[in-house]
């Protein structure tokens, strides 16, 4: 019985127990490490596969988009010949029909351009051609274009810009595309009688561009998702509003390539603001 165990024997028994436990712990640790290594290797392999699949996907998108462009150019070319009467006279109804076809072809062209741009940026970083520019100058054409789109949809559009805006180093083509994309969304997601505003502001050493609408808005928990490629808030919005879900993914990439970030502020049912800042060029004003 317990009373008979000598102190030495007890110490030894305890030491043995401790040693056994330590060994068991070491074995368990080694097993755990091995498992972590195995899982890490598995995950790495899966990640590599995923990257390969992604690359393949954007190559496919690139190839298909280029293939789509050629026949579409033919369609657009012949429609143009028809509507100008070069292929013989058309009656009024035929002219109207051909105009609808021309508009649809133009829309397809834009979607294909988006896809091509997307596949290019997906394969690597966005390459920029930076030049000093004044925002109000590069916005002239797109403001005219969006004014027309907005008035067709009975949406009020205004462009606000201070008389003096500092020069900014930017890729004019990509920034115009970005702002047009944001304005196009703003008009698209705003019901008739709503308003869309493009505003340029000087804030410290930055020029801020914001695109504001009084449209359907976006719930806060969706702010990150809408910048994912092919993401659209819901299936029904796809049918109701059209689009590819690529616009914002590209907008984000282009703005980030300029060393800035795109911000969104929105309240469902009230409207949204998308905005970004560009650093004023220190060389000139
Ligand atoms: P697309 O417009 O082609 O669907 P985008 O990438 O431009 O794709 O936008 C992704 C989604 O974000 C849209 O489908 C829409 O659900 C939402 N969204 C974008 N802009 C707005 C806006 N101004 N107001 C409300 N929802 C918007």
Structure description:
By secondary structure, this protein is an alpha+beta fold. It has six helices and seven strands; from the N terminus they run ααβαββαββααββ. It has helices at residues 7-83, 92-122, 135-152, 172-188, 235-241, 247-257; strands spanning 131-133, 156-160, 168-170, 195-203, 206-213, 263-267, 271-279. A five-stranded mixed sheet has the order 2-4-5-7-6, covered by helices on one side. Helix 2 (92-122) crosses helix 6 (247-257) and helix 4 runs antiparallel to helix 6 (247-257). The N and C termini lie far apart (96 Å). Adenosine-5'-diphosphate (ADP) binds next to helix 4 and helix 6.
Fraction of helical residues: 55-70%
Mean residue pLDDT? 88
Given helix and strand content, the structural type is alpha+beta
Element-by-element helix/strand order: HHEHEEHEEHHEE
Number of strands: 7
Largest sheet: 5 strands, mixed
Number of helices: 6
Q: What gyration radius follows from the Cα positions, in whole Å?
A: 30 Å
The side-by-side strand order for the widest beta sheet comes to 2-4-5-7-6
Terminal CA distance = 96 Å
Taken as a percent bin, the fraction of beta residues is 5-15%
Low-confidence stretches: none
Which ions, cofactors or small ligands are bound in this entry? adenosine-5'-diphosphate
Q: What would the principal axes of the Cα set say about the shape? A: elongated
Which descriptors apply to this entry?
56% helix; 285 residues; five-stranded mixed beta sheet; alpha+beta; two-stranded antiparallel ribbon; 6 helices; 15% strand; elongated; binds adenosine-5'-diphosphate; single chain
């Amino acid at each position: 019985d317990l009373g008979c165990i000598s102190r030495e024997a007890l110490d030894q028994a305890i030491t043995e127990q401790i040693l056994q436990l330590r060994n068991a712990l070491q074995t368990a640790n080694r097993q755990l490490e091995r498992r972590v290594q195995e899982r890490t290797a598995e995950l790495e392999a899966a990640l590599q596969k995923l990257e390969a699949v992604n690359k393949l996907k954007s190559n496919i998108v690139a190839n298909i988009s280029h293939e789509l462009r050629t026949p579409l150019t033919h369609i657009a070319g012949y429609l143009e010949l028809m509507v100008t009467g070069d292929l013989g006279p058309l009656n009024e109804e035929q002219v109207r029909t051909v105009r609808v076809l021309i508009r649809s072809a133009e829309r397809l062209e834009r979607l294909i351009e988006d896809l091509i741009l997307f596949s290019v940026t997906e394969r690597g970083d966005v390459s920029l051609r930076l030049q000093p520019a004044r925002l109000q100058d590069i916005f002239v054409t797109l403001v005219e274009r969006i004014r027309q789109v907005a008035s067709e949809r009975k949406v009020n559009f205004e462009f606000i810009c201070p008389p003096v805006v500092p020069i900014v180093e930017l890729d004019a083509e990509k920034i115009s595309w970005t702002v047009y994309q944001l304005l196009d969304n703003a008009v698209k997601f705003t019901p008739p009688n709503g308003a869309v505003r493009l505003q340029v502001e000087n804030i410290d050493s930055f020029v801020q561009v914001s695109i504001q609408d009084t449209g359907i808005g976006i719930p806060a928990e969706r702010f990150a998702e809408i910048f994912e490629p092919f993401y659209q808030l819901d299936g029904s919005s796809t049918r109701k509003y059209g689009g590819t879900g690529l616009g914002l993914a590209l907008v984000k990439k282009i703005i980030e390539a300029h060393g800035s970030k795109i911000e969104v502020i929105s309240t469902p049912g009230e409207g949204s603001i998308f905005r970004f800042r560009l650093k004023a060029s220190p060389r000139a004003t």
